[in-house]
Protein 1
Amino acid sequence: MQFVLLWTTGMDYWRKPLDIDRYKIPHGTIHIIKDRCKGCNFCIEFCSNKVLEVSDEFNAKGYHPPQVKDPAGCVACKLCELICPEFAIYVTEDKQETIPKEDPHEN
Amino acid sequence: MSRNDIHPMDKLIRADRMPHIWCSGCGLGTNFSCFLSALDQSGLDTDKCVIVSGIGCTGRIPGYTNIDSYHTTHGRAIPFATGLKLANPELTVTVFSGDGDLFAIGGNHFIHAARRNVDINIICVNNFNYGMTGGQYGPTTPLDAITTTSPYGNYEHPFNLVHVAAGSGAVFVARWTSLHVRRLTKSIKEALLKKGFTFIEIISPCPTSYGRRNKLGDGLEEMKYYQKNSVISHGIDPKDTDLDLNGKIVVGKFIDIDKPTFLDKQPDLLSMAEKNKK
């Protein structure tokens, strides 16, 4: 379990992947449309990197919308965007310099 | 809400009608989001896609979709959809409705459309009760479940929707829960692109009616229950996929076959009839 946590929360690998230099973990920015939120907490519970948390503020309908706890942890998987019943959260993937992907089987 | 807030799905929803009427913790919004993603990913021309529904909480979905949509009479979503498909075979017709609408009021329409293999896609959201009218028991309510009309427990045997669809002749049958967003999206995409009568059942939380009376907790608790108790068994015999009140939920893709659709043989027959007339 500890290994899995390390794998998902940090870049601290229990075994260094052989092709790590050829891949870059994507990073996303989370946008929350606060007044659409109805406080079901699906996004907070099912985010695999636990990036979100419940905020103390109220929106126009009296719900507590989520807030970003750990902006660096978002890997732009967009699960929150898909699971949100209210179309209140979305993720944009940050542009990064691309690493040329070489075919490992190429001689 | 500021005008700058633009969700990527705002192009396919009627954003001016948001927030929708569904309760906090209801799975319908998630199912709707999965459908829109699938529609977006399928590459189909949205001008050639139609969504039809009957009455109920799920029946509100076409009203929030920014494609051609029909909110029809109770239980009659499939006849309307069949008519659409026959009148204009190049349309991709999807029926998005609830378990009560499709299997109680519209049960006969369902089995005969499946038997004929009309080329339409059915997505049935199953929340085990009539949520909009106050939580009465319906054809999918499990044995011993508490509803407003079965306060001492339901004693009617429920339908196994997957088995009904497979037995009636559907060419694609799958079941997912509201939690399986990626797999559900993939299944809907497959169904949209498949020819013939496809059926997808979505087990969905109803925290206000069914969940509250059966002590299942709020929507989040029900989603956690799906996470813990779902068993993915692709290709399993549909008769082994019964649902219990607090038992395991068998999910997966059970049937994926090909057979001629209702419209496939019609051009040949028409030309034959015309030849005989001469």
Protein 2
Amino acid sequence: MADKIFTAPEMLRMSDPTGFCPGCGHGTAGRLQFEVLDEMGLLEDSITVYDVACDSLYMWAIDTDCVGVAHGRAIAAACGVKRTRPNNPVCAYVGDGATYSIGIQHTIWAAARNENITVIVINNGVFGMTGGQMAPTTLLGQKTITTPAGRSREMNGQPLDVVKLFTGMDIAYLARGSLDSVASINKTKKYIRKAFEKQMNGEGLSFVEILSPCPTNWGLSPQDSLKRIREVVEDVYPLGEFIERGVK
Amino acid sequence: MVQIDYAHDRCKGCHYCIDVCPKKVISLSGELNDKGYETVKFDTSGCIACGSCYTVCPDYAITVIKKEG
């Protein structure tokens, strides 16, 4: 019997360490993406689009093709990349701050056109790279540096839930995973795998949102950040698969 | 037999691996790496090679190999 090995794709282990803060979920989420691509034999062909945010730090930590674009424009750029290279797996790997605020028009119209790309959104509830400002996904009552008294419905509006936003949209796949435990991470990996399979079958937009910890900007230890996801964030943003073409 | 390849220099000291280990064979090493993060140490004798530490590690520092025979 062969040896059982748990190891990250070689290009992640062999390149420089990622620039993320200790305990950041980006490292795990990106690894899931590249693990899936590696298992499907698509790693060499894959093209990932990053925008100017924490996720762009991956451009220095990976050894596959990637494109770096302006903040919030990763989905728009990924649509263009896919249209010119229709046989390559194209993924927009983005944060919630960009996808749901400055880039919301690209998010909605990519879904309306059912573009054949995969979008992975890291939802940590803040703008991470610029220092933890309020993002569209910040929870009501959550303190950030731009909402020092906590986010209020009257002043800042409701948190934006992509599942409600995409209700009734004719897209291939929509799921939300989490990184709070080993079981959740394995489930999230299954979602990402399904998303890429749907893209390679040409079914259209596959969208996976991942609840991720941001210990630095939440002002918590990495352990307490995971606890917060479990106890607070998952109540507001429930996990699961919400849209799947062909499955009622 | 279980072998764990641990890249000290990649570790950022989040210690997620210590929390998720079902056999509690991972502990603080008391040593700092070059970047100043406290690393961990593994007692492979009690390890069941479940891969939990690998799964939660955000920095690709852990490789778990279970050798047959």
